[in-house]
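PROTEIN DESIGN WORKSHEET
SECTION A - STRUCTURE
LENGTH: 421
C-ALPHA CELLS:
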C-alpha cells in the first residue's frame, strides 16, 4: 500500500476513534458490561472461523521458520479461546472506574471541590505476535471508557482482524459504536509510524512487545507512551535476611518464568551472609540449570560462576542466566540498583524493619518489594483484575497498568451561586 494511502487510512481510523471516544465517555457501566459479555458469547460462537483465520497465520509463520515458542504464542487453541472468554467476563465483573469521585472537600465558602475519574480518550496499542492481546486490550480499553486502535504483529494479521470483527459485533450488540475498537488491517510498518505521530487523534500509545519495538517507539513517537523498556530486576539479600526466605525468594524470582519482565536478573548479597548463604543458592540454581556470572568475591565462594562484566549488570537476560554480586552494605545495594537497574521491580529480603523501609523509600522503581520475589510484578497479582502492561514512567501510570491506569482525573466543582470576591 503506498504511504499516502496508509496515511489516509490511519487518519480515518483516528477520526473514527476520536468520534467513538466521545460516545464511550458517556457510555453506562451496564452497556460496557453488556458489550463484554456479548464479545465473550461471540468468541464462543465463532471458534471455527477464528481457528481457520489463525491457521493461515500459523502456516505462514511455520513456513517462515518462526521459533516453536513464538508459534505457541501465535496459536489459538480451544484452551486459549476459553481463557479469553473467561477474561472478558472477569473484566465485566470489575468495578467501573469511570465517574468515581475522589478527594472531595468542602471549602469555607460552601463550594465543593472534588476529582472525577474519566477516560484518557483514544489509546493506540502496538503489540507483537500474541492474538490474545487483541481481546485483552479491547476489553480493558472498553471497560475504562476509551476508544482503541489496535495494531498487532504481522504474524497474526488474519487472527487479529477476525478477533476485531468479534469485538465490534459485541459493541454493536450493546448499541455502542463499533469504531470504539478498530484493528489496523495492514502489515506495513509505515502504519505504526503514522499511528505514533497522530497527536490530534491519539492520546496515548501502549506498546507491548520486545525491546526492539519499544526502543523504536520511544525514539520516534510524538504521542506519549505508557511503557517499560527493560525489566532488569534485582533481589538484595540483606545482612538481616532469613536464610530460608532468601533461598526461596531468590529461586522463585528467577525460575518462576525466565521470559517475563519481572524475572530477577541480578542477585545482590550482603557480604556478612554471603559465605553462609551463597553456596546453597548456587546449588539450587545449578539444579535448575541456571548459569551464574559473579563478581570476584562471588567467584571466591562459588568457583563455578563465570566472571561477570559491567554488561552483565546491565542486561535483562530473559534466560536461565543470573548475575551475582556481593555488596558491603544496604547503601551499596541501593547504589548498584540506581546505576544499573531499569526502574521496573526490585526486592529486599530482610527482617530489619528500618532496612526494609529505607529500601522501599530510596529505590526509585515502579514496584519495590520486601520479602517477596520480583515475579509478582503482574496486575492480576496486585488485585487489578488484569493489566494492559507495566509502566516505568514517572508521570501518570506507574507499575502494572489496570483499568484505573487507563483513566485520568479532572477537577469537578459545585456550588450554590457563590462568587469570588
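SECTION B - SEQUENCE
RESIDUE ASSIGNMENT:
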Amino acid at each position: 500500500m503506498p504511504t499516502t494511502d496508509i496515511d489516509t487510512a490511519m487518519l480515518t481510523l483516528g477520526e473514527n476513534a476520536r468520534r467513538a471516544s466521545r460516545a464511550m465517555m458517556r457510555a453506562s457501566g451496564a452497556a460496557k458490561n453488556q458489550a463484554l459479555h456479548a464479545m465473550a458469547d461471540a468468541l464462543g460462537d465463532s471458534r471455527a472461523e477464528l481457528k481457520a483465520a489463525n491457521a493461515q497465520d500459523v502456516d505462514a509463520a511455520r513456513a517462515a521458520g518462526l521459533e516453536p515458542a513464538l508459534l505457541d504464542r501465535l496459536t489459538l487453541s480451544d484452551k486459549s479461546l476459553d481463557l479469553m472468554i473467561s477474561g472478558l467476563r472477569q473484566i465485566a465483573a470489575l468495578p467501573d472506574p469511570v465517574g468515581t469521585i475522589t478527594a472531595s472537600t468542602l471549602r469555607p465558602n460552601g463550594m465543593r471541590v472534588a476529582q472525577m475519574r474519566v477516560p484518557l480518550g483514544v489509546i493506540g496499542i502496538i503489540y507483537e505476535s500474541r492474538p490474545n492481546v487483541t481481546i485483552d486490550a479491547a476489553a480493558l480499553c472498553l471497560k475504562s471508557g476509551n476508544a482503541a486502535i489496535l495494531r498487532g504483529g504481522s504474524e497474526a494479521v488474519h487472527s487479529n482482524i477476525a478477533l476485531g470483527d468479534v469485538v465490534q459485533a459485541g459493541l454493536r450488540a450493546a448499541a455502542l459504536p463499533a469504531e470504539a475498537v478498530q484493528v489496523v488491517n495492514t502489515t506495513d510498518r509505515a502504519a505504526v509510524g503514522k499511528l505514533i505521530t497522530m497527536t490530534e487523534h491519539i492520546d496515548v500509545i501502549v506498546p507491548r512487545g520486545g525491546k526492539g519495538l519499544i526502543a523504536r517507539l520511544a525514539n520516534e513517537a510524538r504521542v506519549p507512551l505508557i511503557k517499560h523498556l527493560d525489566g532488569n530486576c534485582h533481589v538484595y539479600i540483606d545482612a538481616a535476611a532469613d536464610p530460608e526466605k532468601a533461598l526461596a525468594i531468590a529461586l522463585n524470582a528467577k525460575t518462576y518464568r525466565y521470559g517475563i519482565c519481572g524475572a530477577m536478573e541480578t542477585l545482590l548479597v550482603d557480604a556478612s551472609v554471603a559465605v553462609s548463604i551463597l553456596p546453597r543458592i548456587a546449588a539450587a540454581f545449578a539444579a535448575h540449570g541456571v548459569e551464574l556470572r559473579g563478581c570476584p568475591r562471588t567467584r571466591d565462594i562459588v568457583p563455578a560462576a563465570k566472571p561477570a562484566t559491567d554488561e552483565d549488570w546491565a542486561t535483562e537476560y530473559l534466560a536461565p542466566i543470573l548475575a551475582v554480586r556481593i555488596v558491603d552494605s544496604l547503601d551499596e545495594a541501593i547504589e548498584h540498583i540506581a546505576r544499573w537497574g531499569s526502574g521496573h521491580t526490585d526486592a529486599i529480603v530482610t527482617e530489619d524493619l528500618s532496612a526494609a523501609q529505607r529500601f522501599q523509600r530510596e529505590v526509585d522503581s515502579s514496584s519495590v518489594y520486601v520479602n517477596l520475589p520480583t515475579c509478582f510484578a503482574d496486575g492480576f497479582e496486585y488485585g487489578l483484575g488484569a493489566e494492559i502492561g507495566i509502566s516505568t514512567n514517572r508521570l501518570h501510570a506507574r507499575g502494572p497498568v489496570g483499568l484505573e491506569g487507563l483513566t485520568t482525573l479532572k477537577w469537578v466543582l459545585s456550588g450554590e451561586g457563590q462568587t469570588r470576591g
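SECTION C - NOTES
The chain has 15 helices and 16 strands.
The chain has a mean pLDDT of 96.
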